[in-house]
Amino acid sequence: MTLTQEPATTVDPRSPRVRLGAFFDDGAFTTITPENDCGVLVATGYVAGTPVVAFATDPTVQGGAMGEVGCRAIVTAYDRAFADSCPVVGIWHSGGARLREGVASLDGVGRVFAAMTRISGKVAQISIVLGPAAGGAAYGPALTDVVILGPEGRIFVTGPEVIRSVTGEEVDMLRLGGPDPHGRRSGVVHVVSETEQDAMNEGRRVAALLGAQGSLDLDRVDDRDLAGLLPESSRRAYDVHPLVAGMLDDATMVELHERWAPNIVVALGRLGGRTVGIVANNPLRLGGCLDSASAEKAARFVRMCDALSVPLIVLVDVPGYLPGVGQEWDGVVRRGAKLLHAFAECVVPRVTVVTRKAYGGAFVAMNSASLGATRVFAWPNAEVAVMGSVAAVRILHRRRLAEADDEQLRAELELQLAAEHEVLSGGINRGLEIGVVDQIVQPNETRRTIAKVLLDTPGVRGAHGNIPL
Amino acid sequence: MAVQRSEIRAEMVAQVHSIVVPVGAVVRAGDTVVLLESMKMEIPVNSEIDGRVLELAVAPGDVIHEGDLIAVVSND
């Protein structure tokens, strides 16, 4: 061997070419903007066989900062996705607007935001954040439908240095805008990934679910005994995740906002091969109560599904709204109203299943018949009421209960009155009578029953954008 | 493996229904440590990590508020 062989060219693993290659099927893509130092590269290619437009910012040039030309490239990506009616995916690693270009770069960043908003709700927009996404580059992902964060992803408007100089707070990028704050507290990020490749894979799964929604094949919908996923005691809280997964085709579930507002679960997946969205109360967390954060989380998900023509399945087991001064001051009225609005305006097929209980205002909010649910089903032992029967008789028969001489007598009377109240208020039968529940469905027939409704309901989609509520 | 210490805190106002595992018990992530009662429901409070129950800060009948310490689990 002589030393005449060419030195191996080192390619920066953060370069747009490498990252786009890691994203598209077989690493194959066609660039549609010139490869230069503008800081952005745009390409078309396929994800699980479906066409997708993707762009990557280039952290090897000025830290990925966005200038006038780079921003125009992103707008090109958006225009192309709109023309091709396919998902657009942004792979972000950028310090924000280019300081050297001054106001021109700010103008460019603003045009990116405008492009994102223009096609919001028309094609799916997904962001994969792999490095810092600061300032203008933070709001880019934030305007999109689904934000996926890699282990090195950091999202913030003003960085640690600025914060230190202005407020004196000491914080690093991880604690300021890493997976923990955005996964649990802020709700900025929908999916937190452990590795960069996982983040790419999650982006691919979401792009495929939203870009290639498939058609429902009833033969592929098997019956499953979902009742076994509830605890024996009706008073016991449980984790709803197995039920959500069980409702969907195997291994198709992608949960969004897993750690933020965990008292409600929102997930994309497939039923009989067709993409659907699921909204489910999770009794394990906060008893499954609705609160301001969970209502907002569900509202945004419902509006996204509605705009992108994804039918909804709503699994209801809700004791009510979470009581508390903090909740009221946190705007549970304003933020809770978003969920009412989201369901009431929703035109995609949307089926509700009351699995155990639905009480009070929370019953209304969880895709009730009154808000226009396509169908409302209930499992045989489900309860639909203004409140639990014991709580109801404590109010209705307060005086009579107070007159009871001792604790035991009072408890017995309470139970007796509660049983009477249940007969009077009618339980699920009364619900059927007045039409707030359409039909009792057996747990092991639920999947097929829902699938039939979805098949029989014409698919329309909401004519609105997906404002990041 | 890094030493992890996990403080389990109350998410909401609740009454402590029962203690499921004693101090010193070995638990896996997802195992129930304490059972709370709130919103007419028994709500399991589960460990977030594999480890041993180092401390129980509540007793049956206690009323706890959001943010109150319930238990500490450590894998040390």
How would you describe the overall organization of this protein?
The complex is a heterodimer of chains A (469) and B (76). Chain A has helices spanning 16-23, 68-84, 103-118, 136-142, 160-167, 173-177, 179-186, 196-211, 241-247, 292-307, 325-329, 332-345, 360-365, 389-396, 398-403, 407-425, 427-434, 446-456; strands spanning 29-31, 40-47, 50-57, 88-94, 125-134, 146-149, 154-156, 191-192, 254-256, 264-271, 274-281, 312-318, 350-359, 375-378, 383-385, 439-440. With 469 residues, chain A is of the alpha/beta class. Chain A is globular and about 85 Å long. In chain A, the strands form 2 sheets. In chain A, strands 1, 2, 3, 4, 5, 6, 7 and 8 form an 8-stranded mixed β-sheet that branches. In chain A, strands 9, 10, 11, 12, 13, 14, 15 and 16 form an 8-stranded mixed β-sheet that branches. Chain B is an all-beta fold and 76 residues long. Chain B has a single domain (5-74), classed as OB fold (Dihydrolipoamide Acetyltransferase, E2P) (Beta Barrel). In chain B, 0% of the residues lie in helices and 53% in strands. Chain B is built from no helices and 8 strands. The mean pLDDT of chain B is 92. Chain A binds chain B through residues 233, 235-238, 283-287, 289, 319-320, 322-324, 326, 388, 390-391, and chain B through 11-13, 38-44, 46, 66.
